[in-house]
Amino acid sequence: MMTEILKAKGSILKKTREAKGMSLEAVHENTKIPIDVLRALEEGYTIRTISTFYQRGFLKLYAKHLNLDWKEIVG
Question: What's the CA gap between 17 and 7, in Å, rounded?
Fold first, then answer.
């Protein structure tokens, strides 16, 4: 169940980024979120080397960067 939720949120991030014509590299440059983390967030995977606290922070930062309601994405 949790994996499905993460994949749905990741899909929203990816579709929004692509609709805005942004590359992962551009998002990385602006947010300083590592590219491998951005990819994992978009694909809906948990990142074992990063605590849940940091993963939620990256989700919030990424959603805010895309002008999405970060509370919906993180919550």
Answer: 15
Tens digits of residue pLDDT in 48-58: 888 889 989 99
| pTM for this entry | 0.89
Task: Please give the structure tokens belonging to residue 43.
Answer: 């694909």
Q: How far apart are CA 40 and CA 50, in angstroms?
A: 11
For residue 32, which amino acid is it? K
Torsional class of 21: left (φ above 0), alpha (ψ -120 to 50), beta (otherwise): left
Radius of gyration of the chain (CA): 11
CA dist 47 and 26 (Å) reads 21
